[in-house]
Amino acid sequence: MNEASDDRFEIWLRGNVRPALAAAALAAFGAVGVTIAMIAAGRPAWLVWPAVAAVPVVGLLAAVGGTAARPRLARRGESLEIRLSPGRVERVPLQVVECVFRGTEPLDEWRPEPRCRVDTLVVRFAERAAEWRFREAFRPWGSWVDGHAVIDGRWCEPLSQPTVERIAAALVAAKRETAAKQVPS
């Protein structure tokens, strides 16, 4: 293989921008509504502060949406990039990633019998890879504990069975390709 393939970038699991965009749209509509109400009530045009005040809020929510849209899982060369925090991506060597599988977590953890569950994607790491046992994570996006990175399905593309199977197949192919490169010719 040539050198360029070492830096190959493949998105395996996309982020979900819909919640942040919905919040930005709600803020914008609220500001417009308050502004229209103020104008209709006979307030001077210079008092339409809600529209002006909404600009940074909408901008902030749009920035959050852009961050939320970043891929949760991607392959870059011989590493798996896992994003479970808005400001950080972890690059895990493919050889320590054992498998990926579909899971669920309770939405209402405080109840003894949760009524709702959310789909998750679990990335399991080899036990010998002690340095990958724990990482900080932004809890709404998932967790990283005890050798497992768990991606919350609400903040990524839908975790259907075909999606999980596609990711698992991509992992197997990437691991085979990486192993083939390490075998002396």
Describe the structure.
With 185 residues, this protein is an alpha+beta fold. It has 2 domains: 17-68; 72-182, no CATH class. The chain is 35% helix and 27% strand. A 4-stranded antiparallel β-sheet has the order 1-2-3-4, covered by helices on one side. Helix 1 packs antiparallel against helix 2 (49-68). Residues 1-5 have low confidence and may be disordered.
Based on CA atoms alone, the radius of gyration comes out at 22 Å
Overall number of domains: 2
The profile of the biggest β sheet is: 4 strands, antiparallel
The first-to-last residue Cα distance is 12 Å
Helix % is 25-40%
Strand content: 25-35%
Précis, in short:
The chain has 185 residues and is an alpha+beta fold. The chain is built from 3 helices and 8 strands, in the order βααβββββββα.
Key features of this structure:
8 strands; 185 residues; 3 helices; 35% helix
Write the layout of secondary structure elements.
Blueprint: E1 9-13, H1 18-40, H2 49-68, E2 73-76, E3 79-85, E4 88-93, E5 97-106, E6 117-125, E7 142-145, E8 148-152, H3 161-182
Antiparallel strand pairs: 1-2, 2-3, 3-4, 5-6, 6-8, 7-8
